[in-house]
Amino acid sequence: MVQNATSHDHFTYTYALKACCLLKAVEKGHKIHAHCLKSGYTSDIFILNSLIHLYYESNDILSARRVFDMINVPNVVSWTSILSGLVKCGCEEEAVMVFGSMDVRPTTVTLVSVLSACSRLRALKYGKSVHGYYLRNFSYDNNIVDNAVLNLYGACGCCVSLRNVFDRMPNRDVVSWTTMVGGYVMGGCYEEAIEIFGMMVQGGEVDPNEATLVNVLSACSSLGVLSLGRWVHSFIDKRGDLLVDSHVGNSLVNMYAKCGDVGMALKVFNELKCKDLVSWSIIIRGMAMNGYAKQVMQLFSLMLCHGIAPDGVLFVGLLSACSHVGLVDKGLMYFKAMKDVYRISPEMEHYACMVDIYGRTGLFDKVETFIKGIPMVPDGVIWGALANACKLHGDEKVLERISRSLLKTTGAGAGTYALISNILIGEKGGILLEAESGDFLGKHGGLVPYSWSAPRSMLSHRTLDLTMSSAEEEYYGIDDEEEFESDEGE
C-alpha cells in the first residue's frame, strides 16, 4: 500500500497513527512519520495532530512539541493535544503558559487539562480564573469539568469553596463524591470527609468505589479514631462486591496500624492475597510506629523470603524501628545494606533516622561526625532530630553548637529555627530569647511564602477573559481569604 502512491491519503496516515497509539507501537509510529515526510504530508493538520497525540502518549513530549511548532495555524485540537501532553508528562507550568497563549476558543477538554495542571501546581488564583471563564462561556453543565474544579479547590485546601461547588452540581457521579471526600482529606478536613462519605452511603445517589474507600480510610487514619475505621471496614464487608485487596486492603492495614490496633493490622495484612511492596512497607512502618522493633525485623526477613526487594520507603520503617528501641548496630547495618547491597541512595529522611538513632542513645560525638559526612545540606528534619535528642539528654553544649551552625546555614526551615529557639528558651528560662532565639527568628523573619507567578501575565491575555466576577465568587462562596498560601505574597 505504501509503495503505491495513489492507494493512500492523509486519512490513511491518520488512522494508522491512531492504531499505533492504541497499540503502543511507537517504533511503527516513527516509520509512519517518516513516510509522511517523504510523501509530502508535512503541513496536514490532521496528521500533525495525530503525531502530537502519538508522541505524548509515549511520554516523548519534546517530539510532540516539535511537531506542534510545525503547525502554521494550530486549531483547538492541536492546542488541546499539546496541553494535555504537557500535563501528562509533568510539565504543568508550561501547560498553563500554553493555555494562556491560545488564540482559539478552548473546549471543555482543554479546560479539564489546564485545571489539572493548576491543581498539581496549587495555582489557585489562575485555576479560579479558568473556572470563571468556564462559567461565563459554557451555558451547559459538564460533569468532567465540574469534577476538575472540585479537584482544584480540594488540592488547594479550599474546603468551603469545594463544598459550595459540590452542592450546586446538578449531576454528581461517583467521581464527584470521591473527589469531594479526597478534597476534604487533602485540605485536612477529615471529619467533613467522613461526613460526606456517610451522606454518600445513606443517600444512595451512587455507590462508593475503591478510590472513595481509600480516601475515607485515609481520613480515619489521620484522625486516629478506630471506631470510624471499623465502621468503614464493616461497610466494605457488607458490600460483598468490594475485595479487601490491593489499594483498599493496604489502606485498611494503614488505618489499623495508625489507630494502634496492631492485631487487626496484621490480620488484614495476612488475609491479603497479593502482598506487594506497598503492603510490606505499610505493615513494617506501622509496626515500627507502634514500637514492635523485633516484629519489624522478622517481617523484613519474611518479605525477602517472598522475593520482594525493598525500596527507600521501606528502609525508613526499618531505621525508625531501630531508633525507637535504640538498636544502633542494627540501624547502621540496615543503613549500609541499603547503600551497598540494594544500591538505594539515602535521602534526607534516612539520614534523619540515623541521626535519631545516634541521638536517642546519647552518642553525640558519632552523630556530629555523621552529620558532617552527609553529602547534602542538612535540612530541618536532621536538625530537629538532633535538637530533640539534645532535649532528651539535656545536653546544652551540643544544643548551643547546633544553634551556631544553624545561623551559618540556609539548610533549615523556619519551623526548625522555632523549634531550636523554643528549646533554648525552655532550657535557660528565656534568657536567650533576645540573644540567641531572636537570631533564629530574625534570620527567617523576612521569608515570603512560595509564589508561583509564571502565568500571572496571562491573566490579561487579550484572547481569553480569565476573570471571575464578584457575583460568581459570591454564588460559589469562593473567597480570596480562603486562598491557598502559595498564591499569596504577590
From TrEMBL:
Q: Which domain of life is it from?
A: Eukaryota
Name the UniProt key words of this record, in alphabetical order: Repeat
Q: Pfam families from the xrefs?
A: PPR (PF01535)
Q: Which InterPro entries match?
A: PPR_At4g14850-like_plant, PPR_rpt, TPR-like_helical_dom_sf
Q: Gene3D superfamilies per the record?
A: Tetratricopeptide repeat domain
Question: Could you give a GO molecular-function term held by this entry?
Answer: mRNA binding
GO biological processes: RNA modification
Intervals holding PPR repeats: 173-207, 276-310
**Keyword Repeat set for record:** yes
UniProt protein name: Pentatricopeptide repeat-containing protein
